[in-house]
Amino acid sequence: MLQRSAGGFGYLVLQAMIARAGGAVVNPLAARAPHFAASAKRVVFLFMKGGPSHVDTFDPKPLLQRDDGKPYPFKQPRVQFAETGKLLKSPWSFREHGRSGLPVSELFPHVARHVDELCIVRSVHGTNPAHGGAVLKLHTGSDTQVRPSMGSWVLYGLGSENGNLPGFITICPTLAHGGVNNWGAAFLPAHCQGTPIGNASVPADKAVVRHMGGDSMSRAVQRRQLDFLAGMNRGHLEITGPDLALEGRINSFELAYRMQGAMPEAQDVESESEATKRLYGMDHEVTRNFGRQCLMARRFLERGVRFVQVTHSDGEVQWDQHGGLFKGHTKNAAEVDRPIAGFLEDLKARGLLEDTLVLWGGEFGRTPTAQGSDGRDHNPHGFTMWMAGGGVKQGMAFGATDDYGYFAQEDKVHVHDLHATILHLLGLNHEQLTHRYAGRDFRLTDVAGHVVREIIA
């Protein structure tokens, strides 16, 4: 009796979602206005899986060089991932670059040429020293619960600028340490879910959305099938009442139908000029894979995809150098340095960098103390991420770790603060972007987070 008496509400829900106009379906991903004027329209997150060492990349520590081999002179964290020994200097030198004179490690000579575009935040900190918890914290704001991912919240707040492509795409994501939760929608509507293209174990040239074409059935027949299914589902909802899972499935069918016309062209990296492919490093074996991922990201961004994530994770070495720091970081930086520099240059040349927020970093940094003879352990207590474009100040470093790089010390930026700032740049108030679930209002920043206004242009 309760199901049938509530069935009318389910019918109204579906009627609001399905508006017949020649068989068309209202797109739940339609763009929505921000809370206030935004400086960024879209986000790309260059995720370095495993935790790059900040003291070897963008946070030089002269005292660490001087005191190599000595004991760390301050109290270490009470909870550590593993035991470490004495101070370990960086194997790489730093040099000042650009008009800003910001120092960058010799690991990143190509990115260093764009240092005047960067806002380097050297005081990021989290709470979890393990990969799983730290990756989830960075992506969802929680290291203990299943929560919507950052990209899902952005899509929930702003919708997409292209109704024929997913609004949130993750390219070659890692399936470990959180896996699908890192791009999942959790209790947000299903259409906010990220769409993975490939995974970390798949070469980028094989990372495509499949089944986008075929002659087995015409588009007209597909349209009739979808309309028939919609009618059946409408009748089902009249009986059961609202069903978010079913509504999400209907939306996914409709998006898949529309993607057939847009996705093949968006995925066609080979249509780019040879000069563009060289810019991204696709002419060299070392940089080809990540370069293709970055070029794919640019193509999605310029076609209105709201949030794109590009993951560097080879499934083996990653950036997690508990040993073999020199070999591992040299390999990883060589694979991403030129593609990232080309990506920044291309975005700027196309006028996209101004309103695209680029975020670079991993789930944590590394300790200044040695693990074994030539490694560093996990360090969530102080690490570096950088941003570019999208309304952040250019050519600046914000915040600082201590003299050896163990703890965020000056102008500390918690992961919640980072999320609040990203949403602010997109015109979203992180305290107002909420979703009611299980009796309470949830948000990306939970009950914390402050906008870091000092880095906003």
Strand percentage lies at 15-25%
Low-confidence segments, given as residue ranges, are 1-24
Number of domains: 1
User: What is the C-alpha radius of gyration, as a whole number of Å?
Assistant: 23 Å
State mean pLDDT (0 to 100 scale): 91
- Which geometry do the CA atoms define? globular
What is the correct CATH architecture?
3-Layer(aba) Sandwich
Helix content: 25-40%
Largest sheet: number of strands, sense, barrel closure: 9 strands, mixed
Instruction: List how many beta strands DSSP finds.
Output: 17
Q: What's the CATH first level?
A: Alpha Beta
N-end to C-end Cα span: 59 Å
- Per CATH, the superfamily is Alkaline Phosphatase, subunit A
Could you spell the SSE succession in H and E letters? Answer: HEHEEHEHHEEHHHHEHEEEEEEEEHEE
Count helical runs: 11
Remind me, CATH topology?
Alkaline Phosphatase, subunit A
Structural class: alpha/beta
Give your account of this protein's structure.
The structure is a single chain. This protein has a single domain, classed as 3-Layer(aba) Sandwich (Alkaline Phosphatase, subunit A). It is α/β, with parallel strands linked by helices and 457 residues long. The longest helix is centred in the last third of the chain and has 25 residues, at 325-349. The chain has helices at 2-17, 62-66, 109-112, 131-140, 150-158, 219-240, 244-267, 274-279, 285-302, 325-349, 415-425, and strands at residues 42-48, 94-97, 102-105, 118-125, 168-171, 195-197, 307-312, 356-361, 365-371, 375-379, 383-388, 396-398, 400-401, 408-410, 413-414, 435-437, 440-442. 33% of the residues lie in helices and 17% in strands. Helix 9 runs parallel beside helix 10 (325-349). The chain is built from 11 helices and 17 strands. The strands form 5 sheets. Strands 1, 4, 5, 6, 7, 8, 11, 12 and 15 form a 9-stranded mixed β-sheet that branches. A two-stranded antiparallel sheet has the order 2-3. The model is unreliable at 1-24 (pLDDT under 50).
